[in-house]
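[INFO] parsing input record for SAM domain-containing protein
[DEBUG] input buffer:
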Amino acid sequence: MAASGSVSPQYTKMTEVKKEEYHAVQGTSYPNEEKVGVITSQPTETSGVENYVVNLDAAQVAAWSVQEVISNFLERVNMTYANELFMANKINGKSLMLLREDHLKEMGIQAIGDRVYMLEMIQLLKKKKKELETTASLWSGETPAEGCAYSKNCWHCVRRYTCPCCVSRVYWKVTGQGVFYRKVPPCRQHFGTVSTEYMDYRFFKDLELKEEHLCCCFCQRYRLQLFVDDKDNKAAERVDPGSAFPTPHELFHPEAPKVEKIIRNAWNAARLVSE
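[DEBUG] output buffer:
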């Protein structure tokens, strides 16, 4: 056996490997790497088809016949191959608004992409309908309302009828989303500013309807108190530190009982949607 200090012949050959240098072939070019910018936002513009569907009146769509669904919807969204399927299954406007993916699959639309695309178009229709339902006016009115019972005092009552522009007014609007009111100061062209308040049903705490009798019980008026936990600290100031509710917004109006029912129903519907 060789001594420990000697090197084996096979390892000696490995140390004698000839080193060679490699050079690029003349005429060959290597382009510089181009950097692609980072996408920070998604496109926000909608296509012409989407704009068409969004601008459709949901009430009119619900009244469409089967032929109108084909001509006004399928052909406009480039799904004409499904004309016979819609005709055979009698899909009218009302049925169109209720279609789900399992319905489309049962009808014979097998392509997943087509089903997803059509459901997206139907969702746009439903979105428009929902927006109309939530923003439509359920009740509107103004205060002070007609009648001496809804005047602050006798002098206020006289001014209301002799100089209407000298009296501040509040315009109310009840929708499916909340309650709006706009305060217009007297002689707004020269004094004061118009302010608008919005009370979302998500922040409603309670409603209270009161019937008050004035002038020895000969005059009566209705007062509707809206207890809302407003984000605006000024509007949410409490009567006293120990009070359970904030200072209420008050509506003095002969139709207050009707308004109370409308608001309570819309409030309950909004809570069901949020849950």
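[INFO] The first helix runs from residue 9 to 15.
[INFO] shutting down worker
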